[in-house]
Amino acid sequence: MNILFIGRGGNGKSFSINSIEKQQSADNASSLTLSEFQEYANDTSVTEKEFQELINIKVVKCSGIGDRGEDLNDSITDVICKLEDLLTESGGFNAIVIVLKYGVRFTKQEQDAVKVFDSVFGPGMIPKWGIILFTYGDLFYQDAKEDNGPSFKDWCREQTGDVQKLFEKANFRIILFDNRTKDPDQQKKQFYTLLETVRNLKAESRYTLQEFQRVSQSRETFVEEEDTNKQIRDKEENNKEEKIHEGFWLCQVIWKHKETVGIISAFAIIVVLTRKGLLRNISNKFGFKNWLAYIPFFSKSK
């Protein structure tokens, strides 16, 4: 059995995979028993063969899917090629885990990431193979303890808006990982929760390369849009650089000739430039906190 982890950078994919692999290590594997899992899952129909397949599940991640714009290290084309290689090597995935971070609002970036998943994998991926995994479970337990809050399951049901739509799309297959816990029982429970969720997917087949290729048209449209957006971003960045250098040069000239134009006039011109955003661009570029910080800097260029 294989599962794929995807999600925006920094959401905790690697830490979650490390937690899973720790349970599969020789030091911990001997403590995983069929009877214990049956009791946890409240299901005595799980066979020894099925249990062994579950605990030896192979976990891989594909970074870059869900990152956009400046967050995307590789081009979207490279990410898709990497995903094709993973699908070919693995023979497909029994589940695809979307990693989110608890304690962070479901921002536009996260909403865009879900749109990316639909564009790359097809709109049928999340309903059929998707599992949502929240990391930073320690923060959830802390909030729940301080506010006498709901259980994680109830918290998921209480959410609204776009995140609730995502939960419904995944049929509330949502789990919580505390990757910082040192409690071996808690670590094992998290592992069992993932295995039980994968088992309960009951997907008739894996998400395979053939399934991936069936949605190539929507993916090609998405890649074209990303390329166009990148060109627009690059053009905007170049324009910003030009404005920065223009404003930088103007301020140097003004301050160099402040005795000629008068100190008050020099200040007035710099204020005008500030209102037009030129000095703000310079400040963002060079890290000065406000335009007053430029006065001693420009005076050095006399």
Automatic annotation (TrEMBL):
UniProt similarity note: Belongs to the TRAFAC class TrmE-Era-EngA-EngB-Septin-like GTPase superfamily. AIG1/Toc34/Toc159-like paraseptin GTPase family. IAN subfamily.
Organism encoding this protein: Biomphalaria glabrata
Keyword entries, A-Z: GTP-binding, Nucleotide-binding
GO molecular function, one term: GTP binding
Protein's recorded name: AIG1-type G domain-containing protein
Domain (AIG1-type G): residue spans on this chain: 1-216
Top-rank taxon, per record: Eukaryota
One Pfam family from the record: AIG1
Keyword Glycoprotein attached: no
PANTHER family the record matches: GTP-BINDING PROTEIN A, GTPASE, IMAP FAMILY MEMBER-RELATED
InterPro entries, A to Z: G_AIG1, GIMA/IAN/Toc, P-loop_NTPase
